[in-house]
Automatic annotation (TrEMBL):
<keyword id="KW-0812">Transmembrane</keyword>
<feature type="transmembrane region" description="Helical">
    <location>
        <begin position="205"/>
        <end position="222"/>
    </location>
</feature>
<feature type="transmembrane region" description="Helical">
    <location>
        <begin position="228"/>
        <end position="249"/>
    </location>
</feature>
<dbReference type="Pfam" id="PF09925">
    <property type="entry name" value="DUF2157"/>
</dbReference>
<feature type="transmembrane region" description="Helical">
    <location>
        <begin position="177"/>
        <end position="193"/>
    </location>
</feature>
<feature type="transmembrane region" description="Helical">
    <location>
        <begin position="292"/>
        <end position="310"/>
    </location>
</feature>
<keyword id="KW-0472">Membrane</keyword>
<feature type="transmembrane region" description="Helical">
    <location>
        <begin position="394"/>
        <end position="416"/>
    </location>
</feature>
<protein>
    <recommendedName>
        <fullName>DUF2157 domain-containing protein</fullName>
    </recommendedName>
</protein>
<feature type="transmembrane region" description="Helical">
    <location>
        <begin position="261"/>
        <end position="280"/>
    </location>
</feature>
<feature type="transmembrane region" description="Helical">
    <location>
        <begin position="129"/>
        <end position="146"/>
    </location>
</feature>
<feature type="transmembrane region" description="Helical">
    <location>
        <begin position="41"/>
        <end position="62"/>
    </location>
</feature>
<keyword id="KW-1133">Transmembrane helix</keyword>
<feature type="transmembrane region" description="Helical">
    <location>
        <begin position="74"/>
        <end position="93"/>
    </location>
</feature>
<feature type="transmembrane region" description="Helical">
    <location>
        <begin position="105"/>
        <end position="123"/>
    </location>
</feature>
<feature type="transmembrane region" description="Helical">
    <location>
        <begin position="346"/>
        <end position="364"/>
    </location>
</feature>
<feature type="transmembrane region" description="Helical">
    <location>
        <begin position="371"/>
        <end position="388"/>
    </location>
</feature>
């Protein structure tokens, strides 16, 4: 598209449609854009190439591993890491492009992991996957600060989430508090990228990776009071939604704003789970107010409340919607649920229905088909969920589906018609 425009510029200047100065500005703009796109591709393929080379070296060594003496094995164990350090040092001191730094950072990251694993194997060092991952992550933390590499931050987030899985899920009940410290270590690099590369796609990726890491790792904080886990998740999604409404994210699309998208989707999914009465009957009998889970919930509540207060100061109250306040309403419903199972079930169903209507209203006001259909989908899934715990005849169920399908079609048709009339 840009090449077509630049080719048409001489003709536009010749016919007096644009001036020569404007033509030069347009050419410079698309020239910079193409150059930036080429650099991104070069960086991406550089990272992919470094990963494949690293894996290839490891496979070649693995094939002949048993034939090597211990000394040779040790040299090969350190070799990928030393090569990675040499290339990274070269790219930093020679001020090479970001593609060099990103590719060498990825190579060095995996080189460190391979070195730890091979040395452990050569000397039969005992240990488990949890300690291996922790040693690997900690040794690679300086990469985020020395290289200022985006790949280092992304790999750090992925591997600390894996560490939280390994250390806190299933057979191991130890709460890996160090996960949160490692997450905090990535924050300075994240903030730097937000300031320096606001419109970068990589920064948008981090807007998804940070909240997703917390979503997947939050259960490691649940020790003895599983019911509080639902409260923790609703509060966490309240935090995310309110972060996604901060001025920095105001003009970003849903794809660029992982906080708002995950906050909204996560809230709805948890509320849909809690719309079943059986959950309230069986999951809230082990709530302890002096537990670690409840302390985490209180911290999340304070953070969400501060963000809500900040958003209310920045935006007019009428521009805020129900999704901003769900965590507050759920806090009240949660307390009621400790003594009764019917009333919170009714309140959650009502809240979900109002959230669906609220989303439809927002979608209609903004002429946004995605938000409009999201609201209708919430109501449709809520109705479908009630098929499982209510005694409704198949005829009524069929009629409800016909009504929902008709509603989808009518709402989209009316909004499309209204959008065309505006033009």
């Amino acid at each position: 598209m840009s090449s077509k425009i630049t080719r048409a510029l001489p003709e536009l200047v010749e016919n007096g449609i644009i001036t020569d100065e404007i033509a030069q500005n347009i050419k410079a703009f698309y020239g910079n854009s193409e150059e930036s796109s080429a650099n991104r591709l070069f960086t991406l393929f550089g990272i992919l190439g470094a990963t494949l080379v690293g894996l290839g070296i490891i496979l070649i060594m693995a094939h002949n591993w048993d034939d090597f003496s211990r000394g040779v094995k040790l040299i090969f164990a350190f070799l990928p890491m030393l090569i990675g350090q040499a290339i990274l040092g070269f790219s930093i001191f020679k001020e090479k492009s970001s593609a060099w730094k990103e590719a060498s950072t990825v190579f060095l990251f995996f080189g460190v992991g391979a070195c730890i694993a091979l040395v452990s194997q050569i000397y039969h060092v005992s240990g488990d996957l949890e300690s291996f991952l922790l040693a690997w992550i900690v040794l690679c933390v300086p990469l985020m600060f020395v290289t200022k590499s985006t790949s280092a931050v992304i790999l750090h987030l992925i591997f600390i989430t894996y560490y939280a899985f390994e250390a806190g899920y299933g057979h191991n009940t130890t709460i890996p508090h160090i996960y949160f410290l490692l997450l905090l270590l990535a924050l300075p690099s994240y903030v730097r990228m937000i300031k320096a590369q606001t419109k970068s796609h990589v920064t948008s990726v981090l807007h998804w990776l940070f909240p997703m890491s917390l979503i997947f790792s939050l259960p490691v904080c649940i020790d003895q009071s599983e019911g509080v886990g639902f409260l923790m998740y609703v509060l966490l999604f309240g935090v995310f939604y309110n972060i996604g409404q901060l001025p920095y994210f105001k003009n970003k699309s849903l794809l660029q704003n992982g906080y708002r998208t995950l906050g909204s989707l996560g809230t709805v999914i948890i509320l849909l789970i809690l719309s079943f009465r059986d959950i309230w009957k069986h999951q809230f009998q082990d709530v302890y107010f002096d537990s670690l889970e409840f302390l985490c919930a209180m911290i999340l509540f304070v953070i969400a409340s501060v963000l809500l207060y900040f958003n209310s100061k920045q935006n007019a109250l009428k521009s805020m919607n129900l999704f901003h306040f769900v965590f507050l309403l759920f806090g009240v419903i949660f307390m009621i649920g400790l003594f009764n199972d019917l009333l919170p079930t009714i309140l959650i169903n009502a809240l979900l229905f109002i959230l669906g209507v609220s989303a439809i209203k927002i979608g209609a006001e903004k002429f946004h088909f995605g938000i409009l259909n999201y609201g209708m989908l919430i109501i449709a899934i809520l109705i479908a969920c009630r098929f499982f715990d209510t005694d409704i005849t198949y005829v009524v169920r069929g009629l409800l589906f016909v009504f929902i399908g008709g509603g989808f079609f009518t709402a989209n048709y009316l909004m499309l018609k209204k959008q065309k009339s505006k033009k």
